[in-house]
Amino acid sequence: MSNDNLDPEARITAHVALRLRIRRRMQGLTLDQLAEKASVTPQQIQKYERGLNRVSASKLLQLARALNAPVNYFYDGLQNGGQMSADVEDGLADFLRADDAPALVSAINRIQVRSTRRRLLQLVQAIADEQP
């Protein structure tokens, strides 16, 4: 899923597309439901999520509101030049394929206390490190 061969604008578009898809799935929304909330067609949401169409600033704000996310959420994880680190990109792609990913992320997002979320991350990392 690496996008190293893309120009910086295309990498940013691909990153925003991935983050949009992740957030929609985390919220448990279908394409139709998000489209209705953001006042666009489901086909347009699909094009945004595939990176076929760039999301304008005003539409990104509408999508962020519809998904209960800050606008900067869509840019989290980008490095200079619009490139996501390969391990983050590969990890996100693998995670998205997991059937239980949306439920897991939704549960984690309901944890409001930042220090608790950090402790949960440390626990998950410790469990992962123990795996054969």
Tell me what the structure shows.
- It comes from Caulobacter segnis.
- By secondary structure, the protein is mainly alpha-helical.
- The chain has 2 domains: 90 residues, 434 Repressor (Amino-terminal Domain) (Orthogonal Bundle); 34 residues.
- Helices cover 64% and strands 0% of the residues.
- It has 7 helices and no strands.
- It is globular and about 45 Å long.
- The two termini are 26 Å apart.
Tell me briefly what this model is.
The chain folds into 2 domains: 8-97, lambda repressor-like DNA-binding domains (434 Repressor (Amino-terminal Domain)); 99-132. Helix content is 64%, strand content 0%. It is built from 7 helices and no strands.
Question: What labels describe this entry?
Answer:
mainly alpha; 434 Repressor (Amino-terminal Domain); 2 domains; globular; Rad_response_metalloprotease
Layout of helices and strands:
Blueprint: H1 8-26, H2 31-38, H3 42-50, H4 57-66, H5 86-97, H6 101-109, H7 114-130
Low-confidence stretches: none
Quick one: biggest sheet? none
What is the mean predicted local confidence, pLDDT? Answer: 84
- CATH superfamily descriptor of the largest domain: lambda repressor-like DNA-binding domains
Strand content: under 5%
Characterize the overall form. globular
- Class from helix and strand fractions: mainly alpha
CA radius of gyration is: 15 Å
The amount of helix comes to: 55-70%
Number of domains: 2
Task: State the order of secondary-structure elements, H for helix, E for strand.
Answer: HHHHHHH
CATH architecture label name of the largest domain: Orthogonal Bundle
Q: What's the CATH topology name of the largest domain? A: 434 Repressor (Amino-terminal Domain)
CATH level 1 name of the largest domain: Mainly Alpha
Number of helices: 7
